[in-house]
Design a protein that fits this description.
The chain has 244 residues and is an alpha/beta fold. The chain has helices at 32-41, 52-57, 63-72, 86-94, 104-108, 110-119, 148-154, 179-188, 202-208, 223-226, 232-243, and strands at residues 2-10, 13-18, 21-29, 47-51, 77-80, 99-102, 124-131, 134-137, 142-147, 162-167, 193-196, 218-221. The chain has one domain: TIM Barrel (Alpha-Beta Barrel).
């Protein structure tokens, strides 16, 4: 069970959004590379990075900040936001990313996801961002009629390394992860699932250690980490213990 600290990039800075609204951004660190270094020093083992501008633009916008992060940390990094072609995927993996997260393109072009999984085994994740159970795309600006679980099932057997499932209605508002929907999604597919959106307190960390959550790969935390709502040392110790 992994706790993934999040760095969301907007205009080169480390921010957190509220309910996915770009106008509701709080800047937490103007130096994302320094934030990545801090997370590693605190004992985290992975890093979750999102290019928010890129998610809207459909292409990398915060590339310089991502590259600085990769230079600053030895932890594996997964990146999402605006990655929509095989060329783009390959370019980022060559720069040192551990995993690329495909979101909008997973809805628009699932064949590309399958091809990427064949070409880069173990290094392709799918981001499923849902509002009221329906998949949202284009940086959450559009909501489709596709159910999150139906999208996940499309990639069974394709070689997807993980699904990052985000409940948009809980993202950045510290109301707790939607464990019911997240675990239901994990039950519906064999692909490892990472919970995202709303992690609020040590209660969520405790929830991660319960037997029915053991099937998850982990959870992502942003605002709760930055606001100091989680005792990092205790949280990481609890999760390490849960693995044994």
């Amino acid at each position: 069970m992994i706790l993934f600290p999040a760095i969301d990039l907007k205009d080169g800075e480390c921010v957190r959004l509220k309910l996915g609204e770009m106008s509701e951004a709080t800047v937490y660190n103007r130096d994302p590379a320094n934030q990545a270094r801090t997370f590693e020093q605190q004992g985290f083992e992975w890093l979750h990075v999102v290019d928010l501008n890129g998610a809207f633009a459909g292409a990398s916008v915060n590339g310089a900040a991502v590259e600085a992060i990769l230079r600053a940390t030895s932890n594996p990094v997964q990146l999402g936001g605006g990655i929509r072609s095989l060329h783009h995927i390959e370019a980022w993996l060559e720069k040192g990313l551990a995993r690329v997260i495909l979101g909008t393109v997973a809805v628009r072009d699932p064949a590309l996801v399958r091809e990427a999984c064949r070409k880069f085994p173990g290094r392709i994740a799918v981001g499923i961002d849902a509002r009221a159970g329906k998949v949202a795309v284009e940086g959450w600006a559009e909501t489709s009629d596709l159910a999150a679980v139906d999208l996940a099932r499309r990639f069974e057997g394709a070689g997807v390394a993980a699904i990052i499932y985000t409940d948009i209605d809980r993202d950045g508002v510290l109301t707790g992860i939607n464990w019911e929907s997240t675990i239901a999604l994990a039950d519906a597919v064999s692909i490892p699932v990472i919970a995202s959106g709303g992690l609020a307190s040590m209660a969520d960390i405790d929830r991660m250690t319960r037997p029915d959550a053991a099937k998850l790969e982990g959870a992502i935390s942003g605002r709760a980490l930055y606001d100091g709502r989680i005792d990092l040392k205790e949280a990481l110790a609890m999760l390490r213990k849960a693995r044994t």
